[in-house]
Amino acid sequence: MHGVKLQSPAWERPGRVEMVFDYIKRVVVPVLLFCGDYFATIAAVWTAAFIRNSVLPEVWFAQEFQDIPYLYTYVVIPMAVIFFMHFDRLYVRRLPLWQQTEKIFKVSCYAVLFILTLMYFNEAAKTLSRPFMVLLWLFTFTYLSIVRYVIKKLLIATNIWQIPVIIVGAGKTAQLLISAFAQDAGLGYKVVGLIEDQPKRAKIFSKIPFIGNFENAVDSIGQTGVQNVIIAAPGLKRERLVNLVYQLQPHVKNITFVPDLFGIPVGSLELETLFDEKAVLLKVRNNLARYYNRVLKQLFDILATLLGGFFAIPLLFVIALLIYFDSPGSVIFSHKRIGKNGVPFDCYKFRTMVCNAQEVLAAYLADNAAAKEEWERDFKLKNDPRVTRIGKFLRKTSLDELPQLINVLRGEMSLVGPRPIVKDEIDKYGEYIHDYYLVRPGLTGLWQVSGRNDIDYDSRVQMDSWYVRNWSVSLDIVMLLKTVKVVIKRDGAY
């Protein structure tokens, strides 16, 4: 082979500028995340100590609160959190927001348990304040989640966090991926090109260039220098997918492909590899089939409702006065909804309609064919004549649903879950009604944080089913955080 110069793989011959920039990203990003975690944890210690020492009544406790030693505040506690963050590879992994929140939730639990154990063996547990440790866990989780989100948003704005990727395939799956990358700060992928055999299909992605087809994929990707490829063609035949992966693998650093698993609950998916047989096993857990998970979900609902309800009392009082003076009738009304196992219950809401709502609705639908069709399709009206002036505001902000906190405390509803339905909607759920019956309906849920009334009914049903099959405590926490954002922006509400 004299005189023949073999071409090295693409990742071995980057330009000097790209090498420097890539090195900066590999160093700067973990350092920024490390610093953010450190100061977020210290802030959690300060906040927990302040609330325990200055806000909570001292008469509640048998002994006086002892100051946290500086060694624990600035070294032990932050380093414990950072250790578990590093152990779970959260300084290098790219995860969707809800998965990142789940990891931070677990890290906070592990760190607090480790600190408790350490203080026990150091005999510091004798003066330990249990409310302080609970508050420390709560604020550690909260501050870490917020700081991580903000830092990654800033990194994306400065193009430090983003990694350029090329997507092979330009169908519905590619659209979903591009939308997810644009909305989720945790991933940081920037799609810079499309590979597709049908150029007309690629034209729907107006802002992303079409750079080639499946046959010349290696050359097309090689010319861009991009080292991360996602194959988003789940309908591709196995032989063609294998050949495509084999062709691309020597020329790029990472290849990700989307398998044809749509409809399968993937929130608790576990992967096992059989090397000798060259096979992959995918295990799907049913989290809600475990008794302790159901108990954990209800405990979380009760504790979060009691804590949030305490701060919401003044708001509830103001809303009640506004409704009372706006229109005659009761402030709160109840409506029969279908709960867990198909058991009906009285669902409470602030009254947003006139007292003779049924008569007004019947007359309106009789005179308006388009409204009747909308009602039969969605069980909602965009321009509902029954809604009062205050009721429009309450519905826009979803504040009309606050009395459902009573249903949560009574064990009839959950903070997060499927949208509570009426008896007439059972048939519209079809086979998915069995998923609905597995859990308590929620005050908020996946439908409410994904566009609410802008989403068609069938999509709502599928979202309810997806939530049940992929449930976790961390998913509930993400849904609650997203609910705050949606309520402020008022997306899809009427």
TrEMBL record:
Q: What EC identifiers does the entry list?
A: 2.7.8.6
Transmembrane stretches, by residue range?
A: 27-51, 71-92, 104-121, 133-151, 299-325
Q: Keyword set for this entry?
A: Cell membrane, Membrane, Transferase, Transmembrane, Transmembrane helix
- Assigned GO CC terms: plasma membrane
Q: Name one GO biological process term.
A: polysaccharide biosynthetic process
Q: Which GO terms describe its molecular function?
A: undecaprenyl-phosphate galactose phosphotransferase activity
Signal peptide span: none
Q: Where does the record place the Bacterial sugar transferase domain? A: 297-489
Q: Enzyme class, one word?
A: transferase
Q: Name one Pfam family in it.
A: Bac_transf
| Membrane topology classification | Multi-pass membrane protein
> Where, per UniProt, does this protein localize?
Cell membrane; Membrane
**What NCBIfam families does its record include?**
EPS_sugtrans (TIGR03025), WbaP_sugtrans (TIGR03022)
Task: List, alphabetically, the PANTHER family matched.
Answer: COLANIC BIOSYNTHESIS UDP-GLUCOSE LIPID CARRIER TRANSFERASE, UNDECAPRENYL-PHOSPHATE GALACTOSE PHOSPHOTRANSFERASE
What the record says about family reads: Belongs to the bacterial sugar transferase family.
Q: What is this protein called?
A: Undecaprenyl-phosphate galactose phosphotransferase
Q: Which organism is it from?
A: uncultured Sporomusa sp
Upper lineage is: Bacteria, Bacillati, Bacillota, Negativicutes, Selenomonadales
Encoding gene (name): rfbP
